[in-house]
Amino acid sequence: MGGTFDPIHYGHLLAAEESMRRLSLDRIVFVPTGAPPHKINREVASSEDRYAMTLLATAGVKEFSVSRVEIDRAGRSHTVDTLTEFLKTPGRSLFFITGLDAMLGIASWRDYARLPALCTLVTATRPGYPLSGIDGLPPEIREGLKVVEIPQFAISSTEIRERVRDGRGIRFLVPHLVEQYIESRGLYKGGMGQA
Ligand code: ATP
Ligand code: MG
Predict the structure, then answer these.
(1) Which domain covers residue 114, as residue numbers?
(2) How many Å apart are CA 160 and CA 152, to the nearest integer?
């Protein structure tokens, strides 16, 4: 499961958990993006902070791990490159999990038409994005797409950053250790997503 994770929140964790259960996956690898191509114009918390928060959020969940592959790669990250990297380890079959909002934008991703050959695409439902949007996806994407309906959790990293900036609480929206990390590092205080 890729994402900016700026910060990681319970919507991400729920989408991962439900996808894992419903599709009988062995494990989930969270892949925080290095320089997100879609978010290049907006300040995000540093890669290391986002990586640290993702580690804290998944600590103690034995099926969950965090990969540095995109963080350590120079330049922009593209899903097609990351999947190709993961496939270098033999014997793996990959599922790439997104929320519905992200899946609906897939036609703008680099070499998106190659993705179904590399992995099974999975999309979790997300409030505000009707399932009917799937009908508009390119046929080669729609064909093998697995849709996982999850309990609808109308939270986003954007809203969490705004809440921190405005001094509103984020308890129960992110894991406790993530909340503590944000507070101790003073993240998101200065404006939209800025550390
Ligand atoms: P931002 O507001 O900064 O875009 P975000 O909450 O959308 O943050 P991302 O890091 O952009 O989080 O998302 C990573 C992945 O998690 C995406 O595929 C996204 O669709 C999915 N996702 C995020 N929040 C939810 C949620 N509440 N329910 C289902 N999927 C989600
Ligand atoms: Mg997003």
Answers:
(1) 2-155
(2) 17
Considering only CA atoms, which of 77, 95, 89 is closest in space to residue 37? Answer: 77
Residue 101 alpha carbon to ligand 1 centre in Å: 8
CATH number of the CATH domain containing 70: 3.40.50.620
If you measure from the C-alpha of residue 156 to the centroid of ligand 2, how many angstroms do you get, rounded to a whole number? 7
Is 15 close to ligand 1, i.e. is its CB under 6 Å away?
yes
Beta strands at 120-124 and 28-32: parallel, antiparallel or unpaired: unpaired
CA distance 166 to 161: 9
CA of 143 to the centre of ligand 1 (A): 23
**What are 4-59's pLDDT values in tens digits?**
999 999 999 999 999 999 999 999 999 999 875 566 555 579 999 999 999 999 99
Contact criterion met (CB below 8 Å) for 79 and 2: yes
Please tell me the predicted confidence (pLDDT) of residue 193.
42
Would you say residue 185 lies in a domain?
Answer: no
Within 8 A by CB and 6+ apart from 100, the residues are 123, 124, 125, 126, 129, 131, 133, 134
Q: Is residue 104 part of a domain?
A: yes
Residue 49 beta carbon below 6 angstroms from any ligand 1 atom: no
Task: Please check whether residue 135 lies inside any domain of the structure.
Answer: yes
Instruction: Report the domain count for the chain.
Output: 1
